[in-house]
Specification:
By secondary structure, the protein is an alpha+beta fold. It contains five helices and five strands.
Length: 122
């Protein structure tokens, strides 16, 4: 098992390592991961990682869990080639996709895309 990880690191950062680097406190990453395992979607492969959940786009997506009338996917973390193509092929289409943005060492604002337009571009 360690050899596989070592080989991936030689080729560049594995996507999981990349997304974990956005957390100063790795315990917070584990808490987020557990939450998304329970109420969202987590997809991790050697080539990509994505973590998202269905939300109501009229409300701040960060604190939402089990949205009653979701109209968007909130993607908190995504890394690697093909992550969004794979996710959009697996989940129920909603009208929007909201991405969390990471700037200056912290999660900041959001960028919202129309589902249909985004899926045509990826």
């Amino acid at each position: 098992m360690l050899k596989i990880t070592a080989d991936l690191v030689k080729e560049g950062h594995p996507p999981l390592v990349d997304v974990m680097s956005h957390y100063e406190n790795k315990g917070e990453f584990i808490q987020d991961l557990e939450s998304y395992f329970q109420a969202g979607v987590v997809i991790s492969t050697p080539t990509f990682f994505v973590m998202g959940k269905p939300v109501d786009s009229s409300i701040d997506p960060r604190g939402q869990w089990y949205a009653k009338n979701p109209d968007a996917w909130f993607v908190k973390l995504a890394s690697g080639k093909g992550a969004m193509r794979f996710m959009t092929s697996l989940v129920k289409p909603l009208s929007k996709v909201i991405f969390s943005r990471f700037k200056n060492g912290q999660f900041s604002d959001f960028k919202t895309y129309d589902w249909k337009k985004l899926t045509r571009r990826i």
